[in-house]
């Protein structure tokens, strides 16, 4: 087509001739008026439209990437605890479900290797969790006091408690499933704190499972 022997590719050139239509002229490969080829640049409006479409696609991809990157953090904030030993299947304790229970807040001091450490914990009483899930319904007081529960953490650390320790009519310990420490939301899952303990060995981080036995 450069030496006039063939048609010009439509995207590179178009022929302008008052005596013929652009399509016909393009098919002929020359100007029907004087036989001269007339170069034509792409339509700027079409180019701008294409650029705009590409920009929108790239922006959408960036949004998707940002959401995927944020997914682990969102899952961490919405971590659940598996409650076993009530009925035939496990109960999932989610932040949404526990938010419906009365809030509990305590200032707790534990002895550490560096001296006393005081923190303010906020969450829900585990006793209220058991009551909300009817864990002890139908059991006589003596049968309730024979019950224990094993708390497991993400790193396989485990601590056992008895129902008698947290029962309001007996030990009445306000065992707390913690959501906030010193006014800041916890990151990395739930924490269980036993106010009244001298040391914090039973303060369990990243609780994943509680089994009633």
Structure notes:
With about 210 residues, the chain is an alpha+beta fold. Helices cover about 30% and strands about 30% of the residues. It contains 6 helices and 10 strands, in the order ααββαββααββαββββ. It has helices at about 20-30, 45-75, 95-100, 125-130, 140-145, 165; strands at about 80-85, 90-95, 105-110, 115-125, 150-155, 160, 175-180, 185, 190-195, 205-210. Strands 1, 2, 3, 4, 5, 6, 7, 8, 9 and 10 form a 10-stranded mixed β-sheet that branches. It is elongated and about 85 Å long. It starts with about 20 loop residues before the first helix and ends with a strand. About 15% of the residues are buried. Mean pLDDT is about 80; it is low at about 10-20, about 25-35 and about 75.
């Amino acid at each position: 087509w450069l030496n006039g022997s063939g048609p010009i590719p439509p995207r590179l050139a178009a022929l302008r001739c008052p005596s013929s239509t652009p399509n016909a002229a393009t098919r002929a490969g020359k100007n029907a008026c004087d036989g001269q080829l007339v170069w034509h640049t792409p339509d700027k409006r079409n180019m701008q439209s294409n650029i705009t479409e590409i920009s929108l696609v790239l922006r959408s991809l960036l949004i998707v990437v940002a959401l995927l990157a944020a997914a682990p953090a969102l899952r961490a904030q919405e971590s659940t605890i598996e409650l076993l030993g009530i009925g035939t299947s496990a109960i999932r304790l989610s932040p949404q479900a526990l938010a419906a229970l009365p809030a509990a807040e305590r200032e707790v001091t534990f002895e550490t290797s560096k001296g006393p450490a005081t923190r303010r914990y906020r969450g829900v009483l585990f006793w209220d969790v058991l009551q909300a899930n009817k864990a002890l319904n139908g059991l006589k007081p003596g049968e309730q006091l024979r019950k224990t529960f094993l708390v497991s953490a993400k790193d396989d650390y485990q601590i056992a408690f008895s129902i008698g320790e947290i029962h309001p009519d007996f030990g009445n310990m306000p065992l707390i499933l913690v959501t906030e420490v010193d006014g800041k939301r916890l990151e990395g899952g739930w924490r269980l704190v036993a106010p009244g303990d001298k040391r914090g060995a039973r303060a369990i981080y990243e609780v994943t499972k509680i089994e009633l036995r």
